[in-house]
Write a structure and sequence with these properties.
The protein is of the alpha/beta class. The protein has a domain of 142 residues: Trna Endonuclease, Chain: A, domain 1 (3-Layer(aba) Sandwich), CATH 3.40.1350. The longest helix is centred in the N-terminal third of the chain and has 46 residues. The chain is globular, with a radius of gyration of 27 Å. The relative contact order is 0.06.
């Protein structure tokens, strides 16, 4: 097998520059074990890449097949009389025969999913396939598998579905991660603070960070901690739970956030202060400090975060870093208190409430309506002054 692989790659690389680039680098004084280890690592990477490419190709072919299956089912559905009389029987019968011939994967529910998939994406062309007699301007992404599209096609709003597609591709979400973000209503949580242009950008490009407030979500959903809502929390225990679920927490907080450390100590005049979590936002090129509270936000919490942010700005951040961002996670927040505690042009310190369960669409819509009314009241007060 090893000789076959060597011959395969020798025959495949006719370009000497490409061959030179892919040669294993070793020194004359390397031991035979070192050379063997380098050879092993190189071949192992080639095999891993090949397996990934095969998996990606299989996923693309599955998506293509289900789109075409869905199209054929819809074409039968469009013959109204056949659908009315034999619709359910037809799919059941076809499912049974397909399963007998091809094995699992062609249940009645799967065929119905394929039908729904085509109905949602009928204006797209499947991967490596042109729509009959047409040149489609939109194509299904080869970076998304059937598990992704099965979740996406259940998102009714076009702008939200487009947003999740972009985010899944940009962040290489697994199918499970995509389903979690849809369930947690990520689009709605981000859309709450966007104007019309901001919503359009969310739909067309996904979540792009231009300024610190773009990195803030409301609320932050921590259902993956599996902590009962009624549980009496201790800040250290909540922090420990977040660290134990760091990958999921970073996914919730957003793309491009890197973990730096926890309980970072700051010493001022002999007194010690501790920042719960220190992150770094790569897109914003700024330190991202998080303080965790298991109660309603107080003026002391805001003042403490102001101290942390100012310290990092003056003592820690480099000249090419942007100003430090501070976020206080709490069970309840007060926008009015934050407004009067900080300057009017504050773009560094924020507060978000968190919840230990997935919000429902109805809850978010009610909260959004309440916040819109508050904004209207503030505008009216300013006009009447």
């Amino acid at each position: 097998m090893l000789l076959y692989l060597v011959q395969f790659f020798n025959n495949g690389f006719n370009n000497r520059k490409i061959m030179a680039k892919n040669l294993i680098a070793y020194n004359d004084n390397d031991s035979i074990d070192t050379i063997a280890e380098k050879l092993f690592n190189k071949i192992s990477r080639l095999i891993d890449d090949a397996r990934q490419n095969i998996h990606r190709t299989v996923d693309s072919e599955m998506v293509r097949a289900y789109w075409l299956i869905g199209r054929d089912i819809v074409e039968v559905d469009q013959r109204g009389e056949i659908k009315a009389k034999y619709g359910t029987y037809l799919i059941t019968s076809v499912s049974k025969k397909l399963t007998q011939k091809h094995g699992r994967g062609f249940s009645v529910s799967t065929l119905r999913d394929a039908r729904q998939f085509y109905l949602v994406y009928q204006d797209f062309s499947p991967i490596h396939h042109a729509v009959r007699g047409e040149l489609a301007t939109q194509k299904l992404s080869p970076n998304l598998g059937w598990i992704h599209y099965r979740a996406l096609m259940r998102v009714a709003r076009i702008e939200a579905r487009s947003f999740y597609e972009h985010e899944a591709i940009n962040n290489s979400w697994t199918g499970r991660e995509l389903e979690r973000q849809i369930s947690s209503l990520l689009f709605d949580r981000l859309a709450k603070s966007k104007d019309k242009d901001g919503l359009l950008q969310l739909a067309n490009k996904g979540h792009v960070l231009h300024k610190p407030e773009d990195a803030i979500k409301e609320p932050v959903v921590l259902e993956f901690l599996n902590i009962p809502e009624s549980n009496k929390l201790v800040e250290s225990e909540l922090e420990e739970a977040l660290i134990n679920n760091l990958q999921k927490f970073l996914l919730e907080m957003g793309a491009g956030l890197a973990y730096v450390g926890r309980q970072r100590r700051l010493t001022l005049d002999g007194d010690h202060y501790y920042v719960d979590l220190v992150m770094y936002s790569i897109p914003l090129k700024a330190y991202f400090l998080i303080d965790i509270k298991v109660k309603k936000l107080t003026h002391g919490d805001v003042g403490q975060m102001l101290l942390y942010v100012n310290y990092f700005d003056r003592e820690i951040k480099k000249t090419d870093d942007n100003p430090t961002i501070g976020l206080v996670l709490c069970t309840e927040k007060s926008d009015e208190m934050v407004k009067y505690m900080l300057t009017e042009n504050n773009k560094q310190i924020f507060a978000s409430k968190y919840q230990l369960y997935l919000p429902t669409k109805e809850v978010l819509e009610a909260e959004l309506k309440r916040e819109v009314e508050l904004v209207k009241e503030k505008l009216e007060d300013e006009v009447n002054k």
